[in-house]
């Protein structure tokens, strides 16, 4: 009886299996917010290769050149965590969400981006919640230095 208790307790203490985002994902424009931004993005594909120590993300958006980024998997940072620096990349788990963060430069401005990926219970849809912050060092009353968007993707056939 005691052995059974120990086995049940050990199984409850183990972390749940992590979702597997690997595969090709196509944005559903009619259910996404990216088509409403300026300029509108109506066509986007994510190709994800998820490993035990890193996540490879290839993004194709419209006619733009594909972007390929590798994110090393790290332990979940303690909040509040500093945004990633200029060329820093990191991926970590926030409960069931896979979070991808990176710093960089867009049109000469230093930016930080955060994408939180969540799978539907059946694994057929992926929700991507994106936050981009411009790190310009000042704020103006009534203006935002960030943008958020939520997009829905469906798994594409291999």
Can you walk through the features of this model?
This protein has 158 residues and is mostly beta strands. The protein has a single domain (18-155), classed as Lipocalin, CATH 2.40.128. It is 8% helix and 46% strand. It has one helix spanning 2-13; strands at 23-27, 44-50, 54-61, 67-72, 89-94, 97-106, 109-119, 125-134, 146-155. A nine-stranded antiparallel sheet has the order 4-3-2-1-9-8-7-6-5, with no helix packed on it. The longest helix is centred in the first third of the chain and has 12 residues, at 2-13. It is globular and about 45 Å long. The model is unreliable at 3-13 (pLDDT under 50).
What CATH calls the topology is: Lipocalin
Largest sheet geometry: 9 strands, antiparallel
Query: Distance between the terminal alpha carbons, to the nearest Å?
Result: 48 Å
Order of helices and strands: HEEEEEEEEE
How many strands appear in the DSSP assignment? 9
CATH homologous superfamily grouping: Calycin beta-barrel core domain
Write the layout of secondary structure elements.
Elements: H1 2-13, E1 23-27, E2 44-50, E3 54-61, E4 67-72, E5 89-94, E6 97-106, E7 109-119, E8 125-134, E9 146-155
Antiparallel strand pairs: 1-2, 1-9, 2-3, 3-4, 5-6, 6-7, 7-8, 8-9
Give the structure's gist in a few sentences.
Helix content is 8%, strand content 46%. It is mainly beta and 158 residues long.
């Amino acid at each position: 009886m005691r052995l059974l208790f120990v086995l049940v307790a050990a199984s409850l203490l183990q972390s749940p299996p992590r979702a597997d985002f690997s595969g090709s994902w196509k944005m559903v424009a009619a259910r996404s917010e990216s088509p409403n931004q300026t300029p509108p993005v109506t066509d986007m594909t994510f190709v994800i290769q998820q490993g035990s120590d890193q996540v490879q993300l290839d993004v194709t958006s419209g006619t733009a050149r594909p972007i390929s980024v590798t994110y090393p998997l790290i332990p979940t940072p303690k909040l509040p965590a500093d945004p990633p620096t200029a060329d820093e990349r990191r991926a970590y788990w926030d409960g069931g969400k896979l979070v991808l963060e990176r710093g960089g430069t867009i049109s000469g401005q230093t930016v930080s981006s955060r994408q939180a990926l969540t799978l539907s219970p059946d694994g057929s849809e992926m929700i991507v919640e994106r936050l981009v912050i411009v790190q310009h060092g000042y704020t103006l009353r009534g203006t935002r230095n960030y943008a958020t968007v939520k997009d829905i993707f469906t798994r594409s056939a291999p």
